[in-house]
Amino acid sequence: MKSLRTSPCALVRGRVFQKKRPLRSAAATIARTCDLADALTAMRFELITIFPEFFAGPLEHGIVRRAREAGLIEVRVQDLREFTQDRHRTVDDRPFGGGEGMVMKPEPLFEAVESLLGRGVGDASGKTAPETGTAIVLLSAAGKRFTQETARRYAELERIVFICGRYEGVDERVAEHLATGEISVGDFVLSGGELPAMLIVDAVTRLLPGALGNEASAQNESFADNGLGQQLNEFRRGPSTASLARVASVKKFYETLDVRQGLLDYPHYTRPAEYRGWLVPEVLIGGNHEEIRKWRREMALEKTLRNRPDLLNTALLAKVERDLREP
C-alpha cells in the first residue's frame, strides 16, 4: 500500500524558520495549524482502486496538499489487484443473469478492506459490527447523493475507506455487507469511482479544523447549514423504512414502470454464486429471462425509493406512498 502522507509539522517548522525569511501563504497556513495538528490524530482517507496512479496529481495541490503537510489528514492508496489470486490479477467477471459489461468481484474488495481495517468483517453467519468513527464508502452511480450535509457528517469521523468501483458495477454483496454507505456525486455516470472519491476527500478536508486557516470561510460558503437543512432533509427523505418493507405489496404497480426511465441501476452480481454464505439471488441463476427482467425492475425501483426518491416525479411518488399505506 502506498502512503501519500508527507512533511510532518516538525519538518515544516524547521524548514520555515531556519530560513529566517517571510512565510509564503502556504507555509504560513501550515505553521498556523501545526499546534492543532500535533494535538489531533490525523484523519485517514484510504482509497481502494485498480488505478493507484490516478491520485498522484490531485493530492499534490491546494488545500488537500496543505492539510497533508500540516498532518491534519493522512491519505493512503491501496492497489486492489494486490488482493487477487490468479496470475492475470483479475478483479471482475461476467454478471449473473446476463447483461452488458463486467462486474467487480467481491473477494478482492472484502480482503482489501479487511487488510486496511486489520480485522475481518464476518460472513453470513455473523457480521462484525463496524468500528466507531470509521466509514466504508462505495462510490456508485446508484448510491445516495453526496451533499454538504454528508460532508459535515464525514468530517466528524476518524477514518474513511473508499471503494472505487469500475466497469458495469460492483457485486451487490459489497454494498450490502461490506460498505457502510453507497454514495453518488451526481446524476451522471463516470468511468470509475476515483474522481468521486477525490471530490469527497476535498469536500471533507476543507471542513476539518485548521484546514482553511480562516474557519469563517467554511461557515459562509454555499450549502453551509443556515438552519433550514434539517427541514429540507425531512422533506426530501421520501418513503419511510416501514413503507419500503411493503414494496412487495405494490409489485403489480411496479411492473408497469419502465426501469430505464428515471430510476437507478439494478443490483449486479458476479462469481462466485456463494461468498461467505451470502448467495446470489436465485432468480439470476435460474435462466428465466422474463423473471430476471421483472426482478431487475423491482430492485431498481426499490433502490431508487431508498437512495434517491427525488428522482421520481411528485405524482408517481405520491401514488407509491398511497399504495404502500393501503392495508
CATH topology of the largest domain: Alpha/beta knot
Number of H/I helices: 14
Low-confidence regions: 10-24, 35-39, 226-254
Q: Which class do the helix and strand fractions yield?
A: alpha/beta
The H-and-E topology, N to C, reads as EHHEHEEEHEEEHEEHEHHHHHEEHHH
Q: Strand order, biggest sheet?
A: 1-3-2-9-8-11
Estimated share of beta-strand residues: 15-25%
Mean pLDDT across all amino acids:
81
CATH superfamily of the largest domain: SPOUT methyltransferase, trefoil knot domain
**Radius of gyration of CA atoms, rounded to a whole number:** 22 Å
Please tell me what the overall shape is.
globular
How many domain modules? Answer: 2
DSSP strand count: 13
**Helical content class:** 25-40%
Describe this structure in words.
The chain is an alpha/beta fold and 327 residues long. It folds into 2 domains: 2-225, SPOUT methyltransferase, trefoil knot domain (Alpha/beta knot, 3-Layer(aba) Sandwich), CATH 3.40.1280.10; 230-325, tRNA(m1g37)methyltransferase, domain 2 (Trp Operon Repressor, Chain A), CATH 1.10.1270. The protein contains 14 helices and 13 strands. A 6-stranded mixed β-sheet has the order 1-3-2-9-8-11, with helices on both faces. The protein is globular and about 55 Å long. The chain starts with a strand and ends with a helix. Residues 10-24, 35-39 and 226-254 have low confidence and may be disordered.
